[in-house]
Design a protein that fits this description.
Helix content of chain B: 10-25%
CATH superfamily of the largest domain in chain A: Dimethylsulfoxide Reductase, domain 2
Shape of chain A: globular
Structural class of chain A: alpha/beta
Largest sheet of chain B: 3 strands, mixed
Structural class of chain B: alpha+beta
Distance between the termini of chain A: 37 Å
Strand content of chain B: 15-25%
Strand content of chain A: 15-25%
Largest sheet of chain A: 6 strands, mixed
Shape of chain B: globular
Strand order of the largest sheet of chain B: 10-1-11
Number of domains of chain B: 1
Strand order of the largest sheet of chain A: 5-4-16-15-14-6
Order of helices and strands of chain B: EHEEEEHEEHEEHHEHE
Number of helices of chain B: 6
Number of helices of chain A: 26
Number of strands of chain B: 11
Oligomer: heterodimer
Radius of gyration of chain A: 26 Å
């Protein structure tokens, strides 16, 4: 709608521009930006359709103006001056910048080969997962590939072992909750992580209301170190467990189920291998099965009683017992997990163990049940931008790139999950980081990673392409200013968490562009300089032509009149396919519909993991791996926390930002301050009160944050929203005043899937000291004095 | 008569604070202020919980001006700057406000902000609906029930933006309106009833 022509105020009438925010939150909500004088004056949401299918943006989408106009926005191409990583730059022309980048790419490929070029994990440009720079490199001989992600690498490996697929698209849809009387949630908080109007928060509420309207019960049990926002009804129950101990909790529950005869043995015997004598794979003794593990008949000889589980998890044994009975007594239980529990040192074990609860109670493959994984994601209605084929067939786990920079050829298939080769042929010498903040901020162990990146003898050149001076952008040698997705014309599919199938025709609008350029055009310019422009443009010579190709390949393209409807209305939306139950076909007839596992059945005992453990042992690599979902104590887990007198840190997705996108917006911080949650018992022990500034520290680093004292977090655990922008004097004390959790987290990959174990992190806590405050004040004063235009990040 | 009001379903509210942000954007609310805040019942921190670990409960409580029928702020205003208009909204005439802040002392809901200095905006310029009047140093400000929108028959921003569809907007004087029916059927209540302010904003679960 166009509003208020001639109204009082300093700016003229607004014109609407249809857009989305396109960050990595799982939703693509519809925004109607009200634009005047080249600025977003305010934002209307999705008002085009009846309420149910609206994709209403959350507070972050509403804050788009603050983000796009932030002082951190990049306006001109920059070249680094001074040591790498200290964030000092000088402006240069586009021609100079592009010539130099092309020259560096050419030089590194000539000397080290294409395998030395890395396009790391990056999710800030999310309409189309493929980056034009990835396409550029694929046209120019390829680059070192990455596989997996920072979201759920451990869960993918675990799910693969159990069910034979990565778990993204095989869980039940949330609509199935309407058929359940018990919802069991491990480490998931859809009310917070999926706030978009078509996403989990709203859909779960609809399920609850649907049950209530029919007079049917729906109890929610949350197994989590924190009391989540999902817990909003009197009947809901919180079972606190220490981070990383989910598998111990499950073993305690399994003990009750077994000893009280509550296991659905008919289901387990028909559909699973590796549980008891009847279901062991050939050549594997019964003592290696899960039942033997729980009953103390396994190699460790320890019976996993509720009391045993209580000691490890911190959850009282009486509550473990009552939960087990409740789960077994439920008519239908929907067991699900978020991605927090698996983001631990033995997250593959946690992830598999949660799924086990669905199997042992037969709550799988029937209406109202789930496989124990996260609810089913939705594939985008139009495919990602094509990046072409990568002629370099070698890839590494996404999280291990800094080791590929540091150790290069030492990374092997056995030790580091290298695929496509026995070992890397070259270290990473050139990085193209487009729309990503995972070089430092969203990676791990920032101080160690800083040392790797700052060493110009290791990685020779870093190209940064971004909209803002993020912490990762500060490591670029050449830094190019991108247009935000929300400023450009593009076809955007509804998000993988949205409960609708939609395509949004996003409009460009009149905004001050300074010297910013869209990434597609920049990559094409580089392609021209590298002599591969023709190949680069094979599927379209502009971003719009590429979008046309994507539309043609999308699921709605064949529908008569769909294209016209998209043109006329700007948003094409269809109700999502109805409810889907995970593995319903398999349950109905396991012989006819086998799973893609080696046995065709659910592998509680994974022969693949057993083989992997043997390979590692033969290669002389000690790695704690278990073929069954046994509990394995972590180096930085609950037991170590007690022994060392440290706190366990959970870093979770807060409301303030989508990963690090929007984390620099002060207006959001005003509404929802970013705080470290600490239990009143610990607050008393450490002598801190709400709003106190404290230092969290460990052997890797130290950060400053403010405290919120609340019983919402269990004693011994502190929780901090991740994504805050790292802000430290890297030439000085490295104390992170931004409060970025990854100053503290470890970058050691997990033993099995080489994933990120951000939630296995031990910390100490103390009050901030006056000398630290004084040092900061002095640094701030010197920053304020720094000449403008030198690109001091913030 | 017309008595415009909002009723908020606390069961649906997930505490996302979208209403706080949208309101700020719509109404050009300056740095350091919110017209619309999401509190947690009986907590002194944002996003807290009640009770003792591990037996805790939590209820989010979005609070803005309650548009009281017996508005304490209006009764103490010495200049008539604060008034109830013909649609039942409590509004401020910024030209008449002398900055005495009696209203802020009187309001039991802490719904008002004061411009102690010339308002500052991080973006360096005003934003929001151009029809919303600018406020200057020395005046009080608060939720207007999106006067500029509701005058045109639109719903307030906090109502249309809510991703959880937790808010209902309508006329309390129309017994058949959705809001009147909901208040009746869901046994809605008002905040601090004992203060006798008779708020128009209702809550239910």
């Amino acid at each position: 709608m166009t509003r208020h022509a001639g109204a009082p105020g300093d700016w003229p009438a607004t014109t609407p521009a249809r857009q989305t925010c396109s960050v990595n939150c799982g939703s693509r909500c519809v925004l109607s930006l009200q634009v005047a004088d080249g600025r977003i004056q305010w934002a209307e949401g999705d008002g085009a359709v009846e309420e149910g299918d609206q994709m209403r943006p959350c507070l972050r989408g509403r804050a788009l103006r603050y983000w796009l106009d932030s002082p951190e926005r990049l306006n001109a191409p920059l070249r680094r001056v001074g040591p790498r990583g200290l964030g000092r730059f000088e402006p240069i022309s586009w021609d100079e910048a592009l010539d130099e980048v092309a020259e560096r790419i050419r030089g590194v490929v000539a000397r080290w080969g294409n395998e030395a070029v890395l396009v790391p994990y990056a999710t800030a440009r999310w309409t189309a997962s493929g980056s034009p720079f990835e396409r550029l490199m694929n046209c120019y001989g390829g680059h070192l590939g990455i596989y997996g992600d920072y979201s759920c690498a451990q869960l993918q490996a675990a799910h693969e072992a159990l069910y034979g697929d990565d778990g993204y698209y095989s869980g039940s849809t949330l609509d199935e909750v309407a058929n359940a009387d018990l919802l069991v949630v491990f480490g998931a908080n859809p009310s917070l992580t999926r706030m978009g109007g078509a996403s989990g928060a709203w859909r779960l509420e609809q399920m609850r209301e649907a049950r209530a309207a029919l007079g049917l019960p729906l109890k929610v049990v949350s197994v989590d170190p924190c009391h989540t926002d999902l817990m909003s009804r009197a009947v809901d129950e919180w079972l606190p467990v220490r981070p990383g101990t989910d598998a111990a909790f499950v073993a305690g529950v399994a003990h009750v189920l077994i000893t009280e005869g509550l296991v659905d043995e008919a289901f387990v015997h028909a559909c699973c291998i590796g549980y008891d004598a009847e279901t062991m794979p050939a050549g594997v003794p019964e003592s290696e099965g899960y039942r033997a593990y729980v009953m103390g008949d396994g190699p460790d000889g320890v019976e996993k009683t509720p009391a045993w589980a209580a000691r490890i998890t911190g959850c009282p044994s009486a509550r473990i017992v009552s939960f087990a009975r409740e789960l077994a007594g439920a008519r239908r239980a929907f067991v699900t997990q978020g991605w927090g529990p698996q983001r631990t040192e033995h997250g593959e074990q946690s992830a598999r163990a949660v799924c086990l609860l669905a199997m042992l109670t037969g709550n799988l493959g029937l209406p109202g049940t789930n496989s124990g994984t996260r609810e089913r994601l939705r594939r985008p209605a139009i495919p990602d931008e094509s990046v072409g084929d990568n002629p370099v067939g070698v890839s590494i786990p996404a999280f291990t790139w800094s080791r590929a920079v540091e150790q290069g050829e030492a990374l092997t298939a056995e030790s580091a999950g290298v695929r496509g080769a026995e070992r890397l042929r070259a270290p990473v010498k050139l990085i193209i980081n487009h729309g990503g903040n995972a070089l430092t901020n969203q990676h791990a162990d920032i101080n160690r990673t800083h040392r790797i990146l700052a060493d110009e003898g290791l990685c020779e050149f870093i190209l940064g392409v971004d909209v803002a001076m993020t912490d990762s952008a500060r490591y670029a040698d050449i830094l190019l200013p991108d247009l935000a997705q929300s400023e450009q014309a593009a076809l955007v599919a509804s998000g993988n968490s949205d409960g609708v199938c939609a395509v949004i025709d996003c409009e460009s609008w009149d905004h001050p562009a300074f010297e910013r350029r869209g990434a597609w055009d920049v990559a094409r310019e580089l392609a021209r300089r590298l002599g591969v422009e023709e190949a680069f443009c094979a599927e379209g010579s502009t971003a719009c032509e590429v979008d046309e190709r994507r539309w043609e390949q999308g699921e709605l393209a064949g529908e008569a009149g769909a294209h016209e409807e998209l043109g006329a209305r700007g948003v094409l939306r269809r109700a999502d396919a109805c409810s889907q139950v995970a593995f319903a076909d398999f349950r109905a007839d396991p012989a006819r519909n086998p799973l893609p596992t080696p046995s065709g059945l659910i592998e509680i005992y994974s022969t693949r993991v057993a083989a992997l453990a043997r390979e590692r042992a033969q290669a002389g690599i000690s790695a704690p791996l278990s073929p069954i979902p046994a509990y394995l104590p972590a180096r930085e887990g609950a037991e170590a926390a007690c022994e060392r007198g440290m706190l366990q840190l959970v870093s979770y997705h807060g409301r303030q930002s989508a990963n690090s996108s929007f984390a620099n917006v002060r207006e959001i911080e005003e509404a929802v301050p970013r705080r470290l949650s600490i239990n009143p018992i610990d607050a008393q022990r450490y002598g801190v009160a709400s709003e106190d500034q404290v230092v969290l520290e460990n052997e890797r680093g130290a950060l400053v944050c403010r405290v919120r004292v609340t019983p919402r977090v269990m004693p011994g655990v502190v929780s901090l929203p991740q994504g805050a922008w790292h802000d430290a004097d890297m030439a000085g004390d490295k104390l992170d005043w931004g409060g970025c959790a990854n100053t503290l987290t470890s970058d050691i990959p997990t033993a099995w899937s080489c994933g990120n174990a951000h939630n296995s992190c031990l910390v100490r806590l103390r009050l901030l000291r006056d000398d630290e405050r004084a040092r900061r004040a002095k640094l701030q004063a010197s920053r304020d004095d720094a000449a403008p235009g030198k690109g001091e990040g913030r | 008569m017309t008595r415009l009001a909002i009723a908020i379903n606390l069961d649906r509210c997930v505490g996302c604070h979208t209403c706080a942000l949208s309101c700020k954007m719509q109404n050009n609310v300056p740095e350091g202020m919110l017209w619309n805040r999401v509190l947690t019942q009986n907590c002194d921190v944002v996003d807290g919980a009640e009770g003792t670990y591990p037996n805790v409960t939590r209820t989010y409580l979005p609070v803005a001006c309650q548009h009281c029928q017996n508005a304490a702020c209006q009764r103490v205003c010495p200049t008539g700057a604060t008034y109830r208009d013909d649609k039942g909204r409590v509004e401020i005439d910024y030209d008449k406000c002398i900055g005495c802040r009696m209203c802020m002392a009187a309001c039991p809901y802490n719904a008002r902000n004061f411009n102690w200095r010339e308002p500052v905006r991080v973006t360096g310029a005003s934003y929001g609906d151009a029809a919303v009047p600018e406020r200057h140093k020395g005046v009080a400000e608060k939720c207007t029930l999106c006067k500029e929108r509701t005058d045109l028959g639109e719903e307030p921003m906090c109502v249309v933006c809510c991703p959880a569809h937790a808010r209902i907007f309508g006329d309390l004087d129309d017994p058949d309106s959705e809001i009147s029916q909901t208040i009746l059927n869901r046994k809605a209540w008002t905040l601090l009833e004992e203060q006798g302010t008779r708020p128009s904003v209702h809550y239910f679960d």
